[in-house]
Write a structure and sequence with these properties.
The protein is α/β, with parallel strands linked by helices. The chain has one domain (4-271): TIM Barrel (Alpha-Beta Barrel). Helices cover 41% and strands 19% of the residues.
């Protein structure tokens, strides 16, 4: 049966380590935020690693950048993933660096054939260096610079040609479908669901009648839960993560969201498990 986890953040570390009534199946964090860490927070991380299985969701691989990969970073990352026995390492289908300047945002890659070839080559190189498959996430985006195809065609081509895995972010599908006027279920149906190794669920903020911003700071809304449930019934069980990046004050509400995800996964995969 699918497992459900929660992002491990310093703001709520005590809840993971001291709250006996809250027991996620695994935790996720960005490796860049912990690599090379010493002192108190290294001890906290080690304590969490003793208690929970770990997945990692990267922020700075910048798989869509034009310049060479950061091989020093990849070397350190490989050692970190090995040290903490990380089961899944995922990254964003975007870019975050230009000429070695970190832009601190997930910027969109043009939906083009040349971008597919470039990214496929880089994913293959990363997988060879890390000696593992990585999962690439469909990201939220607000502009489509130089697009020559739709997002679904672009994502599917990269995952299949690179022979990598897909991190399917269901909230991102909902956000993009709303903002760009396509059908979310149709998008899901076009994805290589047999390549999905991991799912993200999160909240967003509707800032106007025609714009949603992916924030990871608000509760998940019912239409996203419905899209999640529909998606699960088309695929085999995989780990599911509840993403929350801020607004931790009402932790009980986050636990309730976690419980709702557990309930949906159990019902969908217990009855409709794909053999």
């Amino acid at each position: 049966m699918g497992k459900v986890g929660l992002g491990f953040r310093r703001d709520i570390a005590d809840e993971f380590l001291e709250n006996e009534s809250f027991t996620p199946d695994f935790i996720e964090f960005a490796p860049e935020n912990w690599m090379g860490m010493g002192g108190y927070w290294k001890k906290v991380l080690d304590k969490a690693a003793e208690r929970y299985p770990i997945t990692c969701h990267g922020l700075s691989l910048s798989i869509g950048s034009p310049e060479a990969l950061d091989y020093h970073f990849l070397k350190d990352l490989k050692q970190f993933l090995k040290e903490y026995q990380v089961s899944i390492y995922s990254e964003h289908l975007s870019y975050t660096k230009s000429k070695n300047a970190h832009l601190y945002d997930l910027l969109p890659v043009p939906f083009r054939d040349d971008a597919i070839k470039h990214i496929v080559s880089r994913i293959k190189e990363v997988q060879e260096i890390l000696e593992r498959k990585i999962a690439i996430e469909n990201v939220s985006y607000y502009v489509t610079p130089g697009a020559e195809m739709d997002e679904a065609t672009f994502v599917k081509a990269i995952v299949e040609e690179a022979d990598c895995e897909l991190l399917l972010d269901v909230n991102n599908v909902y956000v993009n479908a709303f903002n760009h006027g396509y059908d979310a279920i149709d998008f899901i149906n076009k994805m290589p669901l047999d390549k999905v190794s991991y799912i993200h669920m999160a909240g967003h903020e509707k800032v106007s009648d025609d714009l949603i911003i992916d924030t990871h700071g608000q509760p998940i809304i019912d239409p996203v839960y419905e899209l999640f449930d529909s998606t699960l019934r088309k695929m085999n069980p995989v780990p599911v993560l509840l993403e929350r990046d801020f607004n931790f004050e009402n932790f009980d509400a986050i636990v309730e969201e976690f419980g709702q995800l557990k309930s949906i996964t159990h019902k969908a995969w217990e009855v409709n498990h794909v053999s």
